[in-house]
Structure formats: structure tokens, C-alpha cells
Design brief:
By secondary structure, the protein is an alpha/beta fold. The protein has helices at residues 40-43, 52-64, 77-86, 99-116, 137-143, 146-149, 167-175, 198-211, 281-294, 297-320, 343-352, 375-399; strands at 19-23, 26-29, 34-37, 92-96, 124-128, 159-162, 179-184, 187-188, 194-195, 214-218, 242-245, 256-260, 325-331, 334-339, 355-356, 358-360, 364-367. It folds into two domains: 2-51 and 298-399, Aspartate Aminotransferase, domain 1; 65-294, 3-Layer(aba) Sandwich (Aspartate Aminotransferase, domain 2), CATH 3.40.640.10. Bound molecules: pyridoxal-5'-phosphate. InterPro entries: AcOrn/SuccOrn_fam, Aminotrans_3, Aminotrans_3_PPA_site, Class-III_PLP-dep_AT, PyrdxlP-dep_Trfase, PyrdxlP-dep_Trfase_major, PyrdxlP-dep_Trfase_small.
Length: 400
Amino acid sequence: MAQSEDHLFGVYARAPIEVERGEGSRLYDRSGREYLDFVQGIAVNGLGHANPILIAAMTEQAKKLWHVSNIFRIPGQDELAGKLCATSFADQVFFTNSGTEAVECALKLARKYHASKGHEERIDVIGFQGAFHGRTYAAVTAAGNQTYLDGFGPRLPGFVNVSLDDHEAIRAAAEAPTAAAILVEPVQGEGGARALTDAELHMLRDLCDANGLLLIFDEIQCGMGRSGKLWAYEHSGVAPDVMCIAKALGGGFPIGACLATREAASGMVVGSHGSTFGGNPLAMAVGITAFDEISKPELLDNVVKVSGYLKQQLEGLKQTWPDMIVDVRGKGLLIGVKLKPNNREIMALARDHGLLVAGGGDNCIRLLPALNLTEADAREALERLETTFAAAREKAKKTA
Ligand SMILES: *Cc1c(COP(=O)(O)O)cnc(C)c1O
């Protein structure tokens, strides 16, 4: 029996299962039924459920100190920021509690950067169709998804939304005297696991350099090892000026961060920005541990190996199930499977067969398993997916 949710905003279309506990790649409901979890909090639990190393880090910190204000130095903030900077293009970090707050910080940083150089007119952030940057007013305006904008009044000024395929429009927007920054996910997540080509990323970098814009990468979903490298941008060799991360950064504990070069962050001075909870001691303790685990070469190697296996097998399934699979895409363990039947229906059927997957744009299902997924669990997930396809075929036959 589904619990009543009378006292909650009705904003989620929730799956009708009562999750109770998790262990690695498995999730269990209250009746003890087991699922292979290829959602993992939507790419959040990079080390799976109930990771003992994270539990130990959390427990130890919980006994010491939970929260102090950012008016004091917070244990762990400089340590985690140092690790993030040592492994990326960045020099400085601002900690948030979520992805969209990291995006909000990046947007404010971009405008402040130009204002501090005497260019207050440079406010336009160029975003792309199919993007997702979270749910703050600015983030939904930046992504431009009509579904998330309808009914919320006028769009905020200073945002331009263009198609990634319309290079002329991108160029025109970047050359406008009011342009401030380009905001892009190197691998679009919600949009359906579209990985930008190296050429596309180079083009955006060149446009930013030629016109004095900041290049902001939203690696909230594709970063932190998911692509098979620690940062997705490393595949292309195109570094941004600013990068938003969150999701797997805390291994399941809410953390986000906005990373920037010293130059890009130069407008962010005392009083420019702040957060009550951002970078709190619990988040830092768990974040440091999660980062150390995820940045290990063995773990990144595992992502490459297991994602390669999944991709290859899924390509095979595309041959055997042409009435189901249209296309397999994405990068590393951010895998999009574009379907023929409705993706929501397949998600529900997969759940009935013990496999949890996420939805995505362009009629995709997304596979976002833990980064430490074993090949045995990957194989089992594929078996469950095939059982799902068989059931979908039966169903289609009956209604035909
Ligand atoms: C999830 C996500 C966000 C928003 O993160 P929240 O923590 O939900 O605010 C932003 N950008 C991308 C690419 C995401 O996948």
C-alpha cells in the first residue's frame, strides 16, 4: 500500500515503491523485495548505498561538530577545496548544498566578474536547448525548458537560449556586447545523455576567448568520475573558467560546489555571496572521503571497464530488440538508451522486473549506476532489461 502524501506538495510523479534500505547497487523495499538500482539518487550515490567508508566518516564527524557558521573557519573546507583545485583547472571554490545553488553561484560570479571590470552591461548567459541546471528561477531560465517555466511569470532578463546545432545563433549570441558567459553541460544529463563532441566544446571555448566571455561547465551530473575521468571536460582537453559540481560529490550527502579560476572569481569579494549551510563540517567530512574514494585510479578504471561492457552489450541488444532500442548514447556510466516504446512505460515495467532506471529527454531511459558497479551486477541488470523488453513485446502483441 502506498503511503498517503496529503501533506506534501504534489510536485513529484513518484514510483510506487516504498524503499527502505540499500546496500551497494541494491535497493530493498519494505517487503524485502530487491531492486538493482541504476538510478542511485540520479547519479548521486557514486559509491552505492550504505558505503561503510562513508558511514565511518559521517559517524566520526557527527560526534565532533555538525554545524558552525561560515563566519568561522570550517574544518575541512580548505582541504576539500584544495583537492578539487589540485585535480582540476580551478583555483578557488565556493561550497553549496545543491547543484542548482552551485549554478546560481556561477551565474552571479559571471555577472560580478564583468561588473568588476566596469562592464555592468554584460549580463547575458547563453544556455542550450535540452539543458538542465536545476530549479531556481535563474537556473530554469538559463536552461529554457518550457515545462519548467510555464506559469512562473516572466523569464529573468539576461538569458539567451539557443540550439547546440545552430552555430550561427551561438556565434551571434556570443558576439553581442551584452554577453557574459556560456553555460553548458559537457554531457547533457536530463536532456537524454547527449555528449557534446570535442569540436563543439572547442568551438565554445574559442567563442568565449574571442569575446571575453566566461565558459561555465555544469558537471553536476557528468562530473565526479561518472564519465570515466574525474571531470568530463578532461576527455576533450577544453577547460572551463567556472565549473558547477554536486550530485556524487558528497556520495549521497547534500553538497555542491562552484569552482573557478582566480581570475573568474575575482569579482567575488567579501559580502558578494554566502550560505548558511554551504560547506558545513558534516558535508566536508563526507565530501573529503567520497572524493578520495572516487578519485582513485582503480575506481575510474572500473567506470571505463564496466561502462564499456554495458555499452557493448546494449549495442548488441539494439540488434536483437530493434522494436525497443533506437540508440545508445552518453559517456561512461551516464548512459542514455533511446527507446521506441514510451520511456515511462518501460521504466515502470523495468521496475516490475527488479531494475530501477531514470527517465530522460528524447524518450531515453538513463542508466546511472554506482561507479563501483561490478560486471556481474551489470550483467544482471542487462538480463532484467531483456526480461522487461520481452514483457513489453508481449504487451504490445496483446494490444495490437
Ligand atoms: C541535478 C542537476 C542539477 C541540479 O542539482 P540539484 O542538486 O537538484 O539542485 C543541475 N545541473 C545538472 C546537470 C544536474 O544533473
